[in-house]
Amino acid sequence: MQELIARTRTFRRFFEKEKISTTTLHDLIDAARLGGSAANCQPWQYMLVNTPEACAQVFPHLGWAAYLADWPGPVSGERPSAYIFCLLNHQLLIGPEGNALFDLGIASQNILLTAMELRLGGCRIMNFKPALAALFHLPEHLSLRLVIALGKPKETVQSDECLDNSIRYWRDDKGVHHVPKRSLASCLLPCPLS
To answer: How far, in Å, CA of 25 to CA of 187, rounded?
Structure first.
């Protein structure tokens, strides 16, 4: 499990022509739905996009990699071959909306872990234009909160030691994507009760 978690990074460039079947996407959603949910209300529903035509309509509405300011996103041939739209169903919501966002973190991580186990990569995207939801004519009780882009990874992403408290990811001259991670020691605090 630790090794799978370490390999499950954010990927933003893919082999676009490598399709992801609807059956595979159903397996990813199955992993999402089995995760924990506050008050067990399970308010998240998912819409799947995996045809080239639909993916082409989605792509222009997405923002990519805020720390890579000069990079507008993956070029044609390196774009996702599928998307999962995470929709909050307000009719199923019990309690504060913040609880549902914890659920979404669990669900989306389950999706990405399962995808990586299948040698697929993904990217959680919250930076999208409001017009994206309008493409799908969503009813009022559903709100789009997260898009997960998926595909067969076409880039190397590696975790590095976080130096000088810098958490900004970056790419080297070979195109390797570097993600600084804080050390285990820096994440641990002493317990005053011990």
So the answer is: 34
> How many C-beta atoms surround the C-beta of residue 16 within 10 A?
19
Please tell me the total count of domains within the chain.
2
Identify the bridge partners of residue 121 per DSSP, sorted by sequence position: 151
Residues 59 and 32 occupy one common structural domain: yes
User: pLDDT by residue (tens digit) across 72-104?
Assistant: 999 999 999 999 999 999 999 998 888 999 999
The model carries a pTM of 0.94
**113-151 confidence digits (pLDDT tens):** 999 999 999 999 999 999 999 999 999 999 999 999 999
Would you say the C-alpha torsion 3, 154, 86, 95 has a positive or negative sign? positive
* Token duo for residue 74: 């993956």
Q: Are residues 55 and 96 in the same domain?
A: yes
